[in-house]
Amino acid sequence: MAEDREILREVWDGRVPVCVQLASEDCSTLSAPDSYYLMIPRLSYLPMVMDKVRKHFLRFTSQELQEAEMWLESDGTPLKWHYPVGVLFDLHCGGAALPWSLTAHFSHFPDQDLIRCPTREVVESHFLSSLKEADGLKHRGQIITNMQGKDHKQLWMGLCNDKFDQFWAINRKLMECTPEEGFKNIPFRLHSLCKPPIQRLIKPLADDGRKITLGDILQDYMPNTLQEGDRVIIQGIEAPRDTPIQWLSEHLSHPDNFLHICYIPAQT
Amino acid sequence: MEDDKEKSPPPQEVVAEPQQEHKEDDIKVAANKKIDVLLKATGDAPIMRKKKWAVEGEKPVGWVTEFIRKYLKLDASDTLFVYVNQSFAPAPDQIIRNLYESFGSDGKLVLHYCKTQAWG
């Protein structure tokens, strides 16, 4: 168990270095503002960490944009705030060039690509919905339903305030399972750029009792896409393909209780 | 889950499949196949006369929400919430196929809709 805790802690402490600049079309001053550098927890969401960035840039935008919702773009692609930061980073940057360079926009909100996020409560309710969905898959929703409202709040506050112990005191209940059987199903999403993620019903064990591995999932759901040199990244790590999916789900899931697997093709 | 009776049978003919446990093989569908989505009203939401619709699997939840809004002729100021399993609200960009594969049963995906937040 001690080892497990170290892994969970390591994942929790993951940060990505980010450099944000203001889109030139939204800049109303003669000289462009300085870029804003920050380290963002992998497990957080963009709206939770961008308040300071927004304030920094607002001084350089015109009067009519003062109430506008800020959105971020990585190399031409608008970033979905409802994906955990670590997932966005693995998909869009992959650590090829650090820090990850983002552009902040205040105009031309891409309604086709992004959901609006008017308040922090929207992030919280998205987070809770994901927890419920994940528990629906893992335990038919029994654990999350039997929790009290204050437990849900503690999960959210633990994440917001970067309190590992506060979060895991509750989250470990959502990770309960018998060692022989594991979860009923594994909540996972297989992401690749430019396509909606793939989400299917996967049990931790095959009918013959063999443990289902990361490789099995890739083989089943992207048999025609997978090529030599492609990378498959979870929490910034290229996990061995023979890692059991149950283990990955328990240790490398995001706080929303989903295992987010990022597929990066060799040639992009 | 619950056993509320359908008041009016859906006008469109629907091929019922035998009740089955979730099995990947059984409910895998071709990427372009349409998926039967059953729309059930909850709380004060108006009932739709036709409840069962065939929806392309790649369509996002937000598209279905818009469809319901138009069908019910809701005002722009009205809110509409859509739930799966009577427990969680999927993200608007989640595609129907993902939900069907994970939470579909009996050959269809059941979505509950309401005008005020019902669950969570």
TrEMBL record, chain A:
Annotated ranges, domain Autophagy protein ATG5 UblB: 185-262
GO cellular component: Atg12-Atg5-Atg16 complex; autophagosome; mitochondria-associated endoplasmic reticulum membrane contact site; phagophore; phagophore assembly site membrane
Pfam families: ATG5_HBR (PF20637), ATG5_UblA (PF20638), ATG5_UblB (PF04106)
Highest rank taxon of the organism: Eukaryota
Domain called Autophagy protein ATG5 alpha-helical bundle region: residue spans: 121-176
Signal sequence, start to end: none
InterPro entries: Atg5, ATG5_HBR, ATG5_UblA, ATG5_UblB
Subunit structure of this chain's protein: Forms a conjugate with ATG12. Part of the minor complex composed of 4 sets of ATG12-ATG5 and ATG16L1 (400 kDa); this complex interacts with ATG3 leading to disruption of ATG7 interaction and promotion of ATG8-like proteins lipidation. Forms an 800-kDa complex composed of ATG12-ATG5 and ATG16L2. The ATG12-ATG5 conjugate interacts with RAB33A; this interaction is bridged by ATG16L1 and promotes ATG12-ATG5-ATG16L1 complex recruitment to phagophores. Interacts with TECPR1; the interaction is direct and does not take place when ATG16L1 is associated with the ATG5-ATG12 conjugate.
Family: Belongs to the ATG5 family.
Functional description taken from the UniProt entry: Involved in autophagic vesicle formation.
Protein name listed in UniProt: Autophagy protein 5
UniProtKB/TrEMBL annotation, chain B:
Native source species: Homarus americanus (American lobster)
Gene that specifies this protein: Atg12-L
Pfam family, one: APG12
GO molecular function per UniProt: Atg8-family ligase activity
Membrane topology value: Peripheral membrane protein
InterPro entries assigned: Atg12 (IPR007242)
Protein's UniProt name: Ubiquitin-like protein ATG12
Keyword Membrane part of the UniProt annotation: yes
Record flagged with keyword rRNA processing: no
Cell location: Cytoplasm; Endomembrane system
